[in-house]
Amino acid sequence: MKKLYSGNEAIARGAYESGVILASAYPGTPSTEILETIVQYSEITSEWAPNEKVALDVAVGGAYAGVRSMAVMKHVGLNVAADSFFYVAMTGAESGLVIVTADDPAMHSSQNEQDNRRYAKFARVPCLEPSDSQEAKDMVGAAFEISERFDTPVLLRITTRIAHSHSPLELGERSTEMDARDPLKFRIDRTKYVMVPGNARKRHPIIEERVTEVSKFAEDFAYNLVEMGDTKLGIITNGIAYQYAKEVFPKASFLRLGMTYPLPPALIRDFAAKVDRLIVVEELDPFLEEEIRLMGIPVEGKSIFPIVGELDSGVVRDCAIRAGLQLVEETASTTPPEGIPSLPQRPPLLCPGCPHRGVFHITNKLKVVVNGDIGCYTLGFLPPLSALHSCGCMGASIGVAHGANKAGTKQKNVAVIGDSTFFHTGMPALLNTAYNKSDTVTIILDNRTTAMTGHQENPATGFTLSGEPTFEVDFEALVRALGIEHVSTVDAYDLDGVEAALRAALAVDGPAVVIAKRACALLPEARKEWMPLEINPEQCNGCGMCFRIGCPAIVRSEEKDAKTGRFLAKIDPLLCTGCEICAQVCPRDAIYFREQMLGKEEK
Amino acid sequence: MKTMNFLVVGVGGQGALLASNVLAEVGVRAGFDVKKAEVHGMSQRGGSVNSHVRWGEDVKSPTIAKGETDVLFSLEKLESLRYISSLRQGGIALVGESVIPPLTVSSGEDSYPVDEEIARVFEQVTDNFHFIPTQTLAKEAGTSRAHNVVLLGALSSFIDDVPEEIWLEVIAERVPKKYVEVNQAAFRAGRAVVG
């Protein structure tokens, strides 16, 4: 029986079956599970890199050395890795190199919805796009074949709905050619692999010629599918959009492009000639539409379907009906019910026991400008904390804080950055604050894991992706080595400690770092320490201070204080971890600390 | 067979994913083409979660279009209303009795809809709306955490062409060994509750 695999699990399986030897990645939704699945295949050396650029360089090294290699990242990760992507597009490699980019239309977990097919054309790199898990697995193999046949890296582009959707998968065997190989000898070829101007000038015509060659290959590529039906309407589509279009137009004619760069001009021209009306159904940018129009073929696309957000079969159907497209599969319309009360939102939150909560309470108290970064702590921007004032991309916080400081802002600028994000792109920015004599404070939120993407290891955790013990970064020593003289480490749960450390850092004339250290409350070791706290209803007068830290474990009780007439607070014992942030914030000592809880039990 | 669309909704941490994994696997064992779609990452941290499961002969899209859900499977009362526009006219709505107040309700800024209000809205779309005493039945079976499996039991009673054994078998494979019996009891309790 076939088993259900997510697109990410299927790509991992594809890497295994294709004989991949080396895989490197930086975690990022929606791509994270690819490496987390690959790690179970002992034949593949798989690693977390500190960022996507390093991951790609590692994979390039593997491919230069002659083994099939893979680098995996989310769409914005390719921005970080772009420099490497462009040089390896020029050099090619000795063995297959596949770069997986997981794009995020609708921005379920991202800051933008860039369409990475643009990178394929930009760097002259072929781009493959699967439409389900089976194709996600099989196209890994196709990508390596193209990579080796044409001496080019290949971009395998998926989107969230491919990455995180499950569909049945037929498994294959691993190609063991590479497993049984002799130790490699690195082949020296300076003209090909040393990209100085003289060599690069020779390579550029070669890669332009390569595009033409791959384009010819695409004319017969097995994943460029033609499915002729009614010729009144012809649909050119790709990736997940193919599934939506198939559902809405079951009778139309289809050209489903499995390779979206470079395109097969003859195949497209031939298909266009057979149909009365030609449309493109694609998510995000009008990438195919523009390419087809450049071929001089009349085509419609974004005049019918949105450029923003995800498609689904409902969106495709509504747009098609509005555009008067024939052959639409009609469904009974549902009238929306009336009187739906306005529903309270349920945004993602800092979890109960989150070590970031107390730090934000203190930055609010000291009224500093807080430049944020990418991680769980980004959620500190939400009310009631509302504690972040800028946040752009991985590693941006420190540079932005420095710039605002150099511009001469009246308030002190602070950067908050997580442990993993600090390694990713924070380190050069911190070095810059020392080098250029910044008057900023950087708070490293060291929660001992890469939390937002689901607890991945990083250079501070002491373990590798495969769970092997390794060295553990000493943050204080690292920060000092980058030229920061004022460094202190505090327990993120100790509010007085955090406040004292931050005040001292703010008083320094020059760059300073505070390391707020405390393990994420959801880590297994931290879970063992959970102990729900309680409120003393005799002391609580319903002042509401504890609500201001935004902890989901603190709820309003039914009981009112006789004097103030306000509802007393209550702690949900199923959610509370006993971090004691609320107990420290309470002005009336109405929340029992752990020690008091233990004392109560003894009595 | 016409494709069956199930939308599983709840709050992060409630066990919506386990429920949708069981539902998808049961579909595979019963011989259907199956697709399942969900979103991981940021949306999980205590936020509203949803998972689409589709059974059919040849399922294309992994997600369900608005107004085409045949069964809305909600582990939490408020969340059922959030997804009502996905339910088709006359579809089945199964709503568990869990109440998880969002932060703005806990702090008193917003109010949580009462049962009558929820029922009144659903009745405009379908007669097939049921509150299921998921917590009560799960507790009776041995642990309130099995409330998601109680709701699966209730759902199973609406699907005639899948034998009970398949459900029980998949549940046994998907829950920790020492909780198999409790979960199977929870399933049976849910299966007996409607109709």
Describe the structure.
By secondary structure, chain A is of the alpha/beta class. Chain A has 4 domains: 3-218, Rossmann fold, CATH 3.40.50.970; 225-322, Rossmann fold (3-Layer(aba) Sandwich), CATH 3.40.50; 356-526, Rossmann fold (3-Layer(aba) Sandwich); 545-602, no CATH class. Chain A contains 22 helices and 20 strands. In chain A, the strands form 5 sheets. In chain A, strands 3-2-4-5-7-6-12 form a 7-stranded mixed sheet. In chain A, strands 14-15-16-18-17 form a 5-stranded parallel sheet, sandwiched between helices. Chain A has a 4-stranded mixed sheet with strand order 9-11-10-13, with helices on both faces. In chain A, helix 1 crosses helix 7 (133-150), helix 3 (52-64) runs parallel beside helix 5 (82-91) and helix 11 (239-248) crosses helix 14. The termini of chain A are far apart. The model of chain A has no long low-confidence stretch (mean pLDDT 95). By secondary structure, chain B is α/β, with parallel strands linked by helices. Chain B has one domain: Pyruvate-ferredoxin Oxidoreductase, domain 3 (3-Layer(aba) Sandwich). A 6-stranded mixed sheet of chain B has the order 2-3-1-4-5-6, with helices on both faces. The model of chain B has no long low-confidence stretch (mean pLDDT 93).
